[in-house]
Write a structure and sequence with these properties.
Elements (H helix, E strand, L loop, with lengths): L1 E7 L2 E6 L9 E11 L1 H8 L9 E2 L3 E8 L11 E4 L9 H4 L23 E5 L3 E3 L12 H12 L9 E4 L3 H12 L5 E4 L3 H9 L4 E2 L8 E6 L4 H7 L3 E9 L11 H7 L2 E4 L5 H13 L8 E6 L9 H8 L3 E5 L3
Parallel strand pairs: 9-10, 9-12, 10-11, 12-13, 13-14, 15-16
Antiparallel strand pairs: 1-2, 1-4, 3-5, 3-7, 3-16, 5-6, 6-8
Helix pairs in contact: 1-9, 3-4, 3-8
Length: 329
């Protein structure tokens, strides 16, 4: 089989490898679609940090079953998506259903080979059949939808002052859709990228530029990674409001703690997703309450990863909300 191996900064090479043999309890999946997320892009372009490499990137994906263990209801040829959450299942957090906080969680596509290859072996209990209502290519975006679902759940049951999402990337747009799908009321997004804002408008999500002086939001979601955006919009938080941070803020954020205290505001973080979040994400997509298709701005064939050592694909990924690599046509 062919694997796209990240061997160093700005360098992916296509290698021939043996097709993996599934171990006990594993399913063999033929990968069809892999979405390139922001963390994949950051790792590819960032020459200033040490990473474990070589490694196959990609953790947002869908494919078709080739073989499954005895007693598993999946069948060969079935379209599936995968929850890339490989936790220990034994620690306190796992027993509480908080698999995202497991300290022994294996990092698929980060510290071990991911999905940018023709076949992968995955624990069968992390493989989910895709309902007929979810096209296989859109199934690659269930994982970021689960991240968005978990992020919204961190807000609890909100008041009705509405929500503001900072960042109209995939996670931000999915957060806004989940919020709306759960009936939590008004939600808007802000961004400086006109292409992303066009997708938001296509989804019927209001877009904000500058906040009127009297505006306030009970919930603000930070999904930009920009310290400047965080500081700019924090004053729009309503009394007893919550800020949910899902992005990785790479710079120091200046916060007026006195003003936050006066409002009894809260800053909460959100990390990955749980298996329950993943299942709820599939349900929302199956019902059509969340649209995944409009987020896919471009699809490219697997072979294009060989051009410019993967640079052409990763450059294109910067220009769209989500780029999908078609591993199998």
């Amino acid at each position: 089989m062919h694997s796209a191996v990240f061997v160093g900064p700005q360098h992916i090479q296509i290698e021939g490898r043996p097709t993996p043999a599934p171990g006990a309890g594993e399913a063999l999946i033929q990968v069809e679609n892999v979405a390139i997320c922001g963390s994949d892009q950051a790792r590819f372009w960032d020459s200033g940090k040490a990473h474990q490499e070589p490694v196959v990137l990609g953790h947002e994906f869908s494919g078709r079953i080739v073989t499954v263990p005895d007693g598993v209801s999946l069948v060969p040829g079935q379209g599936v998506t995968v929850a890339p959450l490989f936790n220990c299942g034994k620690c306190e957090f796992c027993r509480l259903g908080k698999e995202n906080l497991c300290s022994k969680r294996r990092r698929f596509g980060v510290a071990e080979d991911g999905a940018l290859q023709e076949y992968v072996c995955i624990a069968a209990d992390r493989v989910y059949p895709l309902p007929a209502q979810i096209p296989l290519v859109e199934g690659a975006l269930v994982e970021p939808l689960a991240v968005a679902y978990h992020t919204v759940s961190q807000a609890g049951v909100p008041a009705r002052e509405g929500a503001l999402v900072l960042g109209a990337g995939a996670i931000g747009l999915l957060i806004a859709q989940v919020w709306r799908a759960l009936g939590y009321g008004y939600v808007a997004v802000v961004d400086i990228d006109s292409r992303r804002l066009a997708v938001a408008e296509r989804l019927g999500i209001p877009v904000w530029g500058e906040a009127p002086a009297e505006s306030s939001f009970h919930t603000i979601f930070e999904a930009t990674g920009s310290a400047r955006a965080f500081s700019k919009w924090l004053p729009a938080l309503a009394p007893q409001g919550k800020v949910i941070v899902v992005s990785k803020l790479e710079q120091t954020v200046t916060i007026d703690w006195v003003e936050l205290l006066r409002k009894e505001g809260q800053i909460i973080t959100s990390r990955f997703f749980t298996l329950s979040d993943f299942e709820n994400a599939i349900t929302l997509a199956e019902k059509g309450a969340v649209q995944l298709g409009p987020l896919i701005g471009s699809t490219v064939p697997f072979g294009q990863l060989s051009e410019n050592h993967g640079g052409d694909v990763m450059s294109l990924a910067k220009e769209v909300v989500r780029l999908v690599v078609r591993v199998t046509d």
